[in-house]
Structure formats: structure tokens, C-alpha cells
Design goal:
Length: 135
């Protein structure tokens, strides 16, 4: 009988401690690279803190880079796109284009980040790859 009370008390104590543990942040940054052979010509990134999104041109391959960020919240699918078609520069700080507006993805939401190479805006997409992150 005493053993049963000890087990019950221990179970309650462990449950109480677990319920008091603060929730960990699930935010996850993500980078994804184009799937072209050899040097990867494009990269897209998403930063969960502040919800920033950009694409970068990484190669002198005569192709631009298109990034797409998507997520679903309350049954509604959201999409943001950004292009970098101004060419590759010697200075890596000039090779990226950041999405210009606040994105406002709800915290804890899974985001899908895709990067593709593209001859020009509206042309067929090439060498696409996708990865996931969390806001």
C-alpha cells in the first residue's frame, strides 16, 4: 500500500515539474541551394527572428535567382517571391536581394523555402530545390 502511494506521489511530482518547464522556441532558420551541377548558382535564406527572406546569385552563369517562401495559416496559403536578376558581382554583399516588406509569419509556423535559377523573370525555372524552416 505504501509503495503505491510513493509511486503516485512521484508521478505527480514529475508531472508538475514537466508542466513547469518553459516551452522551447521552435524557430528554425533555413538556407537552400539550387540543384545545378557543379557550383551552386543560387541560394535562398529565411531567418526566423524577424522573418527575413532573400536570394543570392553565387555564380557567373548568366542565370538569375528566384526564391519563393510559402506557409499555411488558418487554412490560407501565403506566398512571397523575390528575384535577383541584376547579375553576379565581385562583392558578395551585392549579390543578394532581400524581400522588401515585413512578412509576419505566425510563430511556430512551418515555412517552405524554394530556390530556382531563371534566365529572366517569367522564364522557365531550372535547378529548383526546397527545404523547410520554422518561424
Amino acid at each position: 500500500m505504501k509503495m503505491g502511494r510513493v509511486v503516485a506521489a512521484a508521478t505527480i511530482a514529475v508531472g508538475t515539474l514537466l508542466s513547469m518547464t518553459p516551452a522551447a522556441s521552435a524557430a528554425k532558420d533555413v538556407e537552400v541551394y539550387s540543384d545545378d551541377p557543379g557550383a551552386k548558382g543560387g541560394m535562398a535564406w529565411f531567418r526566423a527572428y524577424g522573418e527575413h527572406f532573400a536570394v543570392c546569385d553565387r555564380d557567373y552563369d548568366d542565370l538569375g535567382v528566384r526564391g519563393r517562401l510559402t506557409w499555411t495559416h488558418n487554412g490560407v496559403k501565403h506566398e512571397r517571391k523575390v528575384w535577383h536578376h541584376t547579375g553576379h558581382h565581385q562583392d558578395p554583399r551585392l549579390n543578394c536581394t532581400k524581400y522588401p516588406n515585413d512578412i509576419n509569419v505566425p510563430e511556430g509556423t512551418t515555412v517552405y523555402l524554394q530556390v530556382c535559377l531563371q534566365k529572366e523573370k517569367g522564364a522557365p525555372l531550372k535547378y529548383c530545390d526546397t527545404d523547410t524552416g520554422e518561424a
